[in-house]
Amino acid sequence: MTTRRRKAGEPTAQKREAHVQEEEGDRPYTRVLLQGALVICSLLVIRTFVDFEEKEYGQLATINEDIPHRFIEVGCSSDYDKEKVMFKGCIPSICGRVIMDHIVTREEAAKLLDVAKKGLSLGGSNGGASILDLHSGALSKGDKFVDIFSLQKTKSINIFTEDDFKLYTRVKDRIQHTITAEFGIPREKLFLTNPTFFSQMTTKPAQTVHDEYWHPHVDKETYGSFHYTSLLYLSEYGTDFKGGRFVFVDKDINKTVDPKRGRLSFFTSGSENLHYVEKLTSGTRYAITVSFTCNPQRAIDDPTLR
Ligand SMILES: *[C@@H]1O[C@H](CO)[C@@H](O)[C@H](O)[C@H]1NC(C)=O
């Protein structure tokens, strides 16, 4: 294309365009109709794509609700059939999901959040999910796990106090009693199992499979020993982070639980409770997973300050 200087009096490009538009303006109604049709078509196309992307959810527990007790029954899967005799009285006969906002106080949850932050400040995964397990000492660091108690020794620092461990154990015991009461299990038949851990989730892209918390999974399959899974939320959906809701995957419609500080949610660990955590879109999400088994051989002890 060649360029040349515009001679005086010659119309500029803008003026020429305006002229062309005036000529087309001879058929204004046709033009308006065509443009209108185009806009409507575009909107329809966009809507179709948005509908396709947008999932519909049912809500089990929203952030604005205060839930003293909510039990949602779901039919038990056949996952427990083989163990019914062996762990009689503990294996669930009724399966379901429970949400209780007052088992743990918001103050206790805030203190546990401090414990989580203290511990995790010594490590942290390169990807979006980190854990701290006070029982085994496992702490995510980079692409692997280190032992937080050895790390403390090497650095000759004491990050946890006796009170931190007392609080943790007290809250854990209360959760255990709540689950046995809810599912009608004799206290001596349900045991804490591993992994039981603090979790921290961020928007960082995953580096290893451990970071990919958003895949639907069944706890009983993933962890083997689990019969009842509980989650205690330490931070809040919508203010501390966005995304990151807990989602039960059901045939008809998936159901969400909004994390809320001090909210306890627990459920039977079989495939009747397939679930995942939504990818975070901002902020940091903290929770504790407290896991229980009917198998005494898979029981773990309370954590001790080392
Ligand atoms: C529920 O979630 C799963 C996993 O993300 C997804 O495949 C499925 O389409 C969702 N169901 C509905 C009804 O949106």
TrEMBL record:
Biased composition (Basic and acidic residues): 13-23
Chain ranges of the Fe2OG dioxygenase domain: 192-296
Protein name (record): 2-oxoglutarate and iron-dependent oxygenase domain-containing protein 3-like
Keyword Metal-binding: yes
Cellular-component GO terms for this entry: membrane
Obligatory cofactor(s): L-ascorbate
Ranges for region Disordered: 1-23
Keyword Glycoprotein assigned: no
Gene name of the encoded protein: LOC106169631
InterPro entries from the UniProt entry: OGFOD3, Oxoglu/Fe-dep_dioxygenase_dom, Pro_4_hyd_alph, Pro_4_hyd_alph_FE2OG_OXY
GO MF, one annotated term: L-ascorbic acid binding
